[in-house]
């Protein structure tokens, strides 16, 4: 018996599934297939594929190695059997230590633990959530602490009639307790360390490498979108021509947000240079692959902005293949999501450098919170009056001018024979150092929100 694998539906083949997962016997495995299609409507393709790739080894393992009361565990067994299989997998394959606690189990990662522990726990919990929602699993979600609601469902400050004001609003005293998770398996000794990417020249290094490797105009524009807007790559790849037309400002596009079910609840801003490149791409390179030869201003609203060379919507896996080639050539190991971190770091630097008072700094922070849409939009509605889009436009345009000047200076130095310096990354030392410093606590929330 081999390993689980997945295959995308070939172009021209009609199927209810765009992707099918196969088990070790090369037979379609419907639970993971349905999981993929259930999740793809909720989160970006990159995240779904990451979860799927994390789950496939578990399902290969469970068929041969897991035991509960003398029998192999099946994925649709009762909750206690599945919990035992997950527990064994965490210990045997991911090298974790587990200690039982009241109503849940604590996971202690070790020096041998895989870096995918957190990803696996999120993926397997989401899998059973999908199976329950699709009525394919008849029991309670085995990855959820059933006692959680009784213990934490009524925390101080949670008011059913009126939502508590967000901490960023600054109108209520912060709560003393930390956010609790309803997961049955809880990572105990995890220390979250956000990575602050403070290299001003990072995007220009990648642009330079792309130019040397003759990248397509499409990939250059997508990369510029990532660094200029702070949007997730999935949000950028989902953009349509209509998203550009929805905004009154010519440098803005309407965009979805993670968890918004593809509804356009936010906007992103690009520089004038990137807008010129986008229009050029749509009128030239894109037309070579598209079925319609209409130009930018004549395309239907539903048309995706970015196409593959075969004329289909450009996917994350296709983009990542090109991204990896460019970053490897630049000798930079960088996940596309880190461009979002670079954007936030740069924006925060700009806020402090271009503000005269603490009040002005705080106001711009709130503008950034709203622009990034880190919190649930319903929660954000309670302090929408704090946000002024025009103020953010002014700030963004000023920073883009600085980026353009820096980009020109970078390429001039390359032309003059200078070699790029190594990337400088400054990690925050520990979670404790963040949460105990009132001045930096909000930054911790920012990065936690970015990973949601």
TrEMBL record:
PROSITE patterns: CB, TYR_RECOMBINASE
KW DNA-binding (keyword) present: yes
UniProt xrefs under CDD domains: DNA_BRE_C
Region span, Disordered: 417-452
Superkingdom in the source lineage: Bacteria
Any GO molecular function: DNA binding
GO BP terms, alphabetized: DNA integration; DNA recombination
Pfam family, one: Phage_integrase
Compositionally biased intervals (Basic and acidic residues): 417-432
Residue intervals of the Tyr recombinase domain: 183-397
Keyword tags: DNA recombination, DNA-binding
Record domain Core-binding (CB): where: 27-132
Gene3D superfamilies (UniProt xref): Intergrase catalytic core
UniProt-recorded name of the protein: Site-specific recombinase XerD
Species for this entry: Paenibacillus methanolicus
């Amino acid at each position: 018996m081999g390993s689980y694998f997945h295959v995308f539906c070939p172009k021209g083949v009609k199927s209810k599934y765009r992707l099918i997962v196969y088990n070790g016997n090369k037979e379609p495995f419907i639970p993971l297939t349905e999981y993929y299609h259930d999740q793809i409507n909720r989160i970006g393709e990159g995240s779904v594929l990451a979860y799927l790739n994390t789950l496939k080894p578990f399902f290969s393992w469970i068929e041969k190695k897991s035991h509960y009361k003398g029998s192999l565990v099946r994925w649709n067994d009762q909750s206690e059997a599945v919990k035992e299989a997950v527990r064994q997998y965490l210990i045997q394959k991911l090298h974790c230590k587990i200690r039982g606690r009241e109503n849940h189990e604590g996971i202690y990662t070790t020096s041998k633990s895989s870096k995918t522990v957190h990803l696996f726990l999120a993926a397997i919990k989401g899998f059973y959530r999908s199976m329950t929602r699709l009525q394919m699993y008849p029991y309670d979600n085995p990855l959820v602490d059933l006692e959680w609601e009784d213990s934490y469902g009524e925390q101080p400050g949670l008011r059913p009639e009126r939502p508590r004001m967000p901490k960023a609003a600054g109108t209520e005293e912060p709560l003393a307790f930390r956010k609790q998770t309803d997961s049955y398996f809880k990572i105990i000794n995890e220390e979250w360390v956000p990575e602050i990417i403070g290299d001003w020249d990072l995007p220009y290094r990648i642009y330079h490498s792309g130019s040397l490797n003759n990248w397509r105009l499409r990939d250059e524009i997508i990369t510029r979108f990532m660094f200029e807007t702070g949007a997730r790559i999935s949000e950028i790849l989902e953009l349509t021509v209509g998203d550009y037309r929805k905004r009154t400002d010519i440098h803005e596009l309407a965009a979805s947000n993670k968890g918004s079910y593809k509804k356009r609840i936010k906007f992103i801003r690009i520089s004038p240079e990137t807008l010129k490149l986008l229009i050029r791409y749509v009128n030239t390179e894109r037309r070579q692959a598209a079925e319609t030869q209409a130009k930018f201003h004549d395309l239907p609203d539903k048309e995706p902005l970015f196409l593959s060379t075969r004329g289909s919507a450009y996917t994350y896996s296709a983009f990542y293949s090109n991204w990896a080639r460019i970053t490897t050539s630049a000798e930079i190991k960088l996940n596309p999501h880190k461009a979002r971190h670079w954007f936030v770091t740069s924006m925060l630097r700009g806020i402090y450098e271009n503000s005269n008072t603490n009040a002005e700094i705080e106001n711009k922070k709130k503008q950034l919170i709203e622009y990034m849409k880190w919190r649930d939009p319903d929660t954000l509605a309670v302090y929408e009056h704090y946000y002024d889009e025009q103020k953010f436009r002014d700030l963004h345009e000023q920073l883009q001018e600085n980026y353009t000047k820096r980009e020109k200076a970078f390429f001039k130095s390359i032309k003059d024979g200078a070699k790029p310096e190594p990337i400088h990354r400054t990690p925050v030392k520990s979670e404790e150092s963040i949460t105990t410093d009132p001045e930096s606590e909000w930054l911790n929330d920012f990065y936690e929100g970015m990973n949601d």
